[in-house]
């Protein structure tokens, strides 16, 4: 039963990670001189915040189930 749940959580975690926005593309502005966004605070809102929180939750669930299966 836990193995099936772990498989479902794993697939959902992969999907959620792929849905996250690419924050690495903003790092290229450091080289080109995009100082206005370098030190500004950009807060996640709406769907982006939901995806980030759901990814963290699924990661914790994955860790917990994996640990439980290991200790059994």
Radius of gyration: 17 Å
Helical proportion?
over 70%
- Which class do the helix and strand fractions yield? mainly alpha
The tally of beta strands, per DSSP, is 0
Multimerization status = single chain
Rounded mean pLDDT score: 82
What is the strand content?
under 5%
Instruction: Determine the N-to-C terminus distance.
Output: 13 Å
SSE order, as H and E? HHHH
- Profile the largest sheet: none
Overall form: elongated
Low-confidence stretches: none
Total helical segments: 4
Summed up, the domain count is 1
Q: Describe it for me?
A:
This protein has 72 residues and is mostly helical. It has one domain. Helices cover 72% and strands 0% of the residues. The longest helix is centred in the C-terminal third of the chain and has 25 residues. The mean pLDDT is 82.
Task: Outline the secondary-structure elements.
Blueprint: H1 2-19, H2 28-32, H3 35-38, H4 47-71
Helix pairs in contact: 1-4
């Amino acid at each position: 039963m836990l193995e099936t749940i772990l498989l479902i959580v794993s697939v959902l975690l992969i999907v959620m990670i792929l849905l996250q926005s690419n924050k690495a593309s903003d790092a290229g502005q450091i080289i080109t001189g995009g100082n206005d966004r370098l030190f500004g605070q950009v807060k996640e809102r709406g769907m982006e915040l939901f995806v980030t929180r759901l990814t963290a939750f699924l990661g914790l669930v994955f860790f917990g189930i994996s640990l439980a299966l290991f200790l059994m």
